[in-house]
Specification:
alpha+beta; Tetrahydropterin Synthase, Chain A; three-stranded antiparallel sheet
């Protein structure tokens, strides 16, 4: 059986068309180079035709990429050596720029993240690195977003993941935290003593205006002690009674004699 040239040509054309069919997922776009020139718009998603060798397609994913920055040796502004790791979230916003403007946008973004992390964190002190994490994350995200915008990349978030401190620095910070807690405890105790002294002085002024109040206070104290069923009760002797006994007996305390002169 002899196949005619027309059928052969049609068969080849059908195979070529079938081979030219490409399917792109919803999160993919195809950047097409036709005879080396970039087409105006990327293709996809769905079924597209790429006529090789005239056309060359580069697949670009539009999903958010999570890149973990490896631990970086950072010397802070106060000369403390730490290891800092972070996580960068970015995605492709313009597939044409991501293919044309940079050779490998994933590798370029990862290297830029590492250098930016070292340069930014090297300008802050250790206390700021530990306490102002949110501000530093926003600063890193803003810098990376500005630098990757010409590549069609959008950096959505940067999170400092871990800060590894030297062992001697951890011990020094623990001692500092303990000293701060002791300081606050002493201040609180002193403030309590001051408040108590003020309240006692006010109570003494009230009792001095009404001398009978001290007797009522004694009786109340005895009632509280008796309710606990104690076998021994200590009854305080009022100072006024001692003055009364001295006046009745005619005994007054003698003033201390002056030392003899040489």
């Amino acid at each position: 059986m002899v196949i005619s040239p027309v059928l052969m040509a049609l068969f080849i054309i059908v195979l070529y068309v079938i081979a030219s069919i490409k399917i792109l997922a919803e999160y993919e776009r195809g950047v097409i180079f036709r005879l080396g020139k970039l087409l105006a718009r990327p293709k996809g998603p769905g079924v597209i035709l790429v006529f090789a060798p005239i056309d060359r397609m580069v697949r670009v994913g539009l999903r958010t990429v999570v890149f973990e920055v490896p631990p970086q040796d950072v010397i802070t502004r106060d000369n403390v050596s730490v290891k800092v790791s972070a996580v960068v979230y970015f995605r492709v916003m313009d597939p044409r720029k991501a293919v044309v403007e940079v050779e490998n946008y994933n590798y370029a973004t990862s290297q830029l993240s590492q250098t930016t992390l070292r340069s930014v964190l090297g300008q802050v002190e250790l206390d700021d690195l530990l306490s102002q994490r949110e501000r530093l994350n926003q600063q890193l995200q803003h810098i990376l977003d500005d630098r990757t915008e010409p590549w069609g990349i959008k950096v959505s978030a940067v999170e400092v993941k871990y800060v590894d401190l030297p062992a001697d620095m951890q011990r020094a910070m623990a001692r500092q935290a303990e000293a701060e807690r002791e300081k606050r405890a002493k201040i609180i105790h002193a403030a309590g003593e001051l408040d108590a002294s003020e309240k006692l002085s006010q109570a003494a002024a009230v009792i001095a205006a009404q001398p009978v109040a001290i007797t009522l206070r004694y009786l109340q104290t005895l009632t509280e002690i008796a309710s606990e069923k104690n076998s021994t009760i200590i009854f305080p002797l009022p100072i006024e009674m001692l003055h009364l006994l001295r006046q009745m007996t005619g005994v007054e305390p003698k003033a201390p004699s002056a030392p003899p002169r040489a």
